[in-house]
Specification:
It comes from Ruminiclostridium papyrosolvens C7. The protein is α+β, with helices and mostly antiparallel strands and about 100 residues long. It has one domain. The protein has three helices and five strands. The strands form two sheets. Strands 3-4-5 form a three-stranded antiparallel beta sheet, with no helix packed on it. Helix 2 packs antiparallel against helix 3. It is elongated. The protein binds zinc ion.
């Protein structure tokens, strides 16, 4: 569980954190409400960059090493990309206070 930046209670699950999106051009913002203090949290704008890097890395890896006819290769590449994305979200991206 992750700490709420408002009240310091561990009220956010990893799944909730993963679903959060900062407000950017093509991506609709997604926030979460703390169960304890009912305040809104989100993730910083730069979490988009991490997401993009994962996607680009995945595309590069996929186009150079992957045999698209091999379904296991495709599944592995997707799993790999998604795992990196989740780990970076878990370790790097903090929850921040969101002010409407
Ligand atoms: Zn809270």
């Amino acid at each position: 569980m992750f700490k709420c930046p408002h009240c310091n209670q561990r009220t956010f699950s990893f799944r909730t954190k993963l679903s959060l999106k900062p407000n950017k051009l093509f991506v609709p913002r997604k926030t979460a409400i703390c169960k304890s203090c009912k305040k809104t949290v989100s993730v910083p704008y730069w979490s988009i960059i991490i997401e993009m890097c994962c996607f680009v890395a995945f595309v590069i890896a996929a186009s150079s090493y992957m045999d698209y006819r091999n379904k296991i290769d495709v599944a592995l590449a997707i799993t790999f990309g998604f795992t990196i994305y989740m780990v970076s979200y878990l370790l790097i991206v903090p929850l921040i206070k969101w002010k409407e």
